[in-house]
Amino acid sequence: TQLGRVESTVTGLGGRRSAGEDIQLKADFVSTNGCSLGLETEDMSSSLIFGGVEGGGTHSTTMIYNGKGEKLAEVGGPSTNLYQIGIPETNKRISDMVAEGLKQAGLPENTTLEGLGLSLSGCEREETNSALTANMVEAHPTLSRHYDVCSDTVGTLNTATDSGGIVLIAGTGSNALLVNPDGSVHRCGGWGHYLGDEGGAWWIAHKACKVYFDHVDNLNNAPADINTVQELIFTHFNIQDRFGILTHCYDNFSKAEFASLSKKIAEAALTGDALCIWLFREGGRMLGKHIRALANNVSKELKEAEGGLNIVCVGSVWKSWELLKQGFLDGIKDDRGQPSISELTMVKLSVGMATGATYLGAKAAGKSIPRNFQDNVEKFFHYKS
Asked: What is the pTM of this model?
């Protein structure tokens, strides 16, 4: 599988023109060293301004950088998942965040970015990314001269490294992306809560509800006492009986609200509740299975690198690593009980993923922002069989 990415160049900024006149779209495939290939090497003036957007299903972050690699502003915002809110609203929210970032940076409100990287949840397909870019150019023609649109996993990896590895997202949902040094791309997950999201916060919360309901219905016995989980569910959704949850599942469903139950489950697990501990162990096991699913496609170069396979872990669920760890190590094992990856190092970003999106925005403009990947990550776990 290869993951499409859209780079575009906007021409004739200023007047409102059709997307076809304003934009030249180039379909591209993600490359682990794409940030440094074919770019201008002369010193860049700080007057060049770049931006990057990390867009999630719950919240988003926008960063503004100058050409010297100095961060000028960072602003937060709401969801920018195009499947949740549509392309026009996604682009309006991005434009509003950029405007707020320019204001925070003390720059004129009519400043046009040289390049803007959009690393957004849901931007997995070339066709969708092209449509988003075309709408951006038409609706917000002076926002940026160049764009790079890609998934949040691509932006994450470009924040952490230019030599490849795996991004494993466990936030509201889950997703795994492998990029080899030769540019080949493989993925597992990222299909949303109807078809995937295993190990993510929504999955853990839903699993808790399902185990509880099945136990009370005498359909399947829970692996441990359900009393604490029942209390957490009733309190979180402010319901008096099991029927009360139906409106939260169907009439007024909010994935983010549902997923936030997992935080309370984690807190109960830390106090020793057996069922909550089991739920997070199961979450870890499912995340480990993402690595197992990709293991056969990992290049020899990545496996033999210092520290083994590099896995960049993103999302709030990783804050509960100690609860996930045993299940994760079980999940990476094959059918014979042997680890599918003999050595791995897990890191988390110490800077926002919008940083990598900004690197991609600069690349789309034919520029390169100075960066030090070692400063962008923090190692938290190493495993060797």
From this structure: 0.77
